[in-house]
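Minutes, project huddle
Topic: does the predicted pose make sense with zinc ion bound?
PN asked that the exact inputs be recorded in the minutes so nobody has to dig through chat later. Recorded below.
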Amino acid sequence: MTAHPRRQWSPPRSQRPRPPPGGDVNTIPWIPAPARPIVFKNASVVDVANNTVNRSQTVVLENGVFTSVSHNWNVVVPNARVFDLEGLYLCPGLVDCHVHINMSDGRPSSGYTEPHLRATYTLKAMLARGFTTVRDVGGATFAQAQAVKQWLTPGPRLFQGGNILSQTGGHGDPRSRESPAASLCCAPVPEMSVLADGVDAVTHTTRELMRQGADHVKICTSGGVSSPTDALKSVQFSPAEIRAITSTVADMQGTLVTSHAYTVPAIRRAVENGVRGIEHGNLLDRDTAKLLASTGTFLTPTLMISTAKGRAPWNDTLPDYMREKNAKVRDAGRRAIQIAEEEGVTVCFGTDLTMGMGYLQSEEFTQRAQLLPSHRVLAHATTNAAKLLNDDKIGVIAAGAYADCLVLPTNPLVDVRVLDVGDDGRHGGIWGVVRDGRIVVARGEFAELVEDVGGLDVVLGIDEAK
Ligand SMILES: [Zn+2]
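Predicted holo structure (tokens), as shared on screen:
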């Protein structure tokens, strides 16, 4: 046995008061120091807007943004980590425009702490899948968005609208919603909606959502699959109520009211009264697609949720009414997304996965790739999403944009399924994930490059294979 020298602690000679973090009582101690700059050389940069790849690019990431993208090989950035990405693609970070972070992963449970614990895992898991931005359309809070922004909870940058605004007896009525796994545990879903009826009440509630920091307001104008007592065909909120909501949001400088709507009457009532976002839209017809295109209304289909509910093991967990409703919307949704593309609607990427289905998020790419060319599907999750979010720093690798990007072994404009699975069938198709100029995921050959320069900036600490 080797004898270790005895470690000793001796008291300080004088006791000086310790200064506050950063020398300033106003410092927020959890804000991380800026990441070291990154220079990607020799990168094949994916330009989604132009459906092209720009070869041999030098891309500089500093202080959370791209500061230059050029052919200049001789860029020198002090203290930078330099990567030679020869043969690799640099793709804009992905955006999922329809998520519920408090309900995505794990088995549903009663109680009010679990949704927040679940959200912490879900945010990390979504980032590990390459989603550097998500839009929550029911349940997330302003505080959660701030926690992500400040890197206290690693995750995608989060756009949120607070709770869903529903009429009594509507799709968002929390008293009548059930989880898909209801037959397993009989637990109600966590609170994610608020009820209001009549012009005065919806105006007040909309103002309250805006006060709470909503980036958008989500309403329901049709019935839904996971609510037993509202018919899919029901049309919800009166025209006057919808106008009260949309005009209040406009007056308060909000960006968008978006509506859960499956049927043509529900979509039309929403759009004719100022709504400019449609969620799901599975029963959309061609005339209504033309209306969406001519009014600049965004469509966010969610194919994966109805696909998952229609197959094992999830179909067995559904009550009969839910299985019947799901069958009505599943195949229709696949036609609707094609009609919308043909009519020039701005189509966005959404998944809507809840109650343990979050791990299927990336399969939405594979589902859409069966219906549309890969470059269109990639636009749904990048450039079109940026328009929906009204933020031109998203979905593009260009000077001034957020330094959110993926390192890929192949060109996603040719086969977008690389964003779903790798060669080995795991989540290995994406080799690197960078958000805000911080490297959070490194796999494959990119992992070796990152190891050489000191490792990851942020360790997610989750099992990414799940
Ligand atoms: Zn949803």
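Observations noted during the meeting:
- Residues 98, 100, 137-138, 352 surround zinc ion (CB under 6 Å).
- The mean pLDDT is 91.
No decisions taken; revisit at the next huddle.
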